[in-house]
Amino acid sequence: MHYDLDCLIFASGFEVGTSYSRRSGFETVGRHGETLSEHWAEGMRTKHGLHSHGFPNLFIVSPSQGANLISNITHNFSEAGSTVACIVAHALEVGADEVEVTEAAEAEWVQLLEGSTRAFLGSPDCTPGYYNNEGRPIGRRERLNSSGYPEGPVAYFQYIDTWRRSGTFDGLEFTTRP
Questions:
Q1: For the chain, how many structural domains are there in total?
Q2: What are phi and psi of 145, to 5 degrees?
Q3: pTM to 2 decimals?
Q4: Within a domain: residue 159?
Q5: What CATH code is carried by the domain that includes residue 134?
């Protein structure tokens, strides 16, 4: 059979805006028994979208709070993989058992994201969808869960590459357990 068409979309669907534990299928528990859901109750809090304070050796691979909404999601994952590999290699090199973002570095990254005036999230001119909270008001939690690097994806990829290649891993602590 033959069908004339202008556009064909293959989509399996995805879920946005629900708790991380729902999407991943499990709850992540960090230091002192705090769950990631509890840590993110007021919105996602990370450094580079990869690390959350209180969750050593946890690497979150997601476009949120990094390059964010770009069409080529695989590029996001490739960059995240390169970053994680670099960090793990450094941890092995220095004999560290744990890698964790500092609380101050996490707060600084969140402040950078919150201070952005370039975010398009929440535009009432768009058809309701995940990018504007289905047309409902957008609070801090929704902004943090959907925010990305203020200068855009290309600038984020340049930023994270420079951060990786510096070898200093600013904002991370590498420790050895006694």
A1: 1
A2: -70, -20
A3: 0.81
A4: yes
A5: 3.50.50.60
Would you list the DSSP string of the chain? -----S----------SS-HHHHHTS--B-GGG-BHHHHTTTS---BTTTB-TT-TT-----STTTT-S-S-HHHHHHHHHHHHHHHHHHHHHHT-SEEEE-HHHHHHHHHHHHT-S---TT-TTSPSSGGGGGGS---HHHHHHH---TT-HHHHHHHHHHHHHHSS-TTEEEE---
- For the stretch 94-104, pLDDT in tens is 999 999 999 99
Given the structure tokens 């990094």, which residue do they identify?
66
pLDDT band at 67 (very low <50, low <70, confident <90, very high): confident
Burial (0-12, 13-18, 19+ Cβ within 10 Å), 154: exposed
Q: How far, in whole angstroms, is CA 161 from its chain's centroid?
A: 16
What residue has token string 């992540």? 28
Asked if residue 13 belongs to a domain, the reply is no
CA-CA-CA-CA torsion sign (147, 151, 157, 160): negative
Tell me how many degrees the CA angle 33-39-42 measures, rounded to the nearest 5. Answer: 150
Residues of the domain holding 72: 20-175
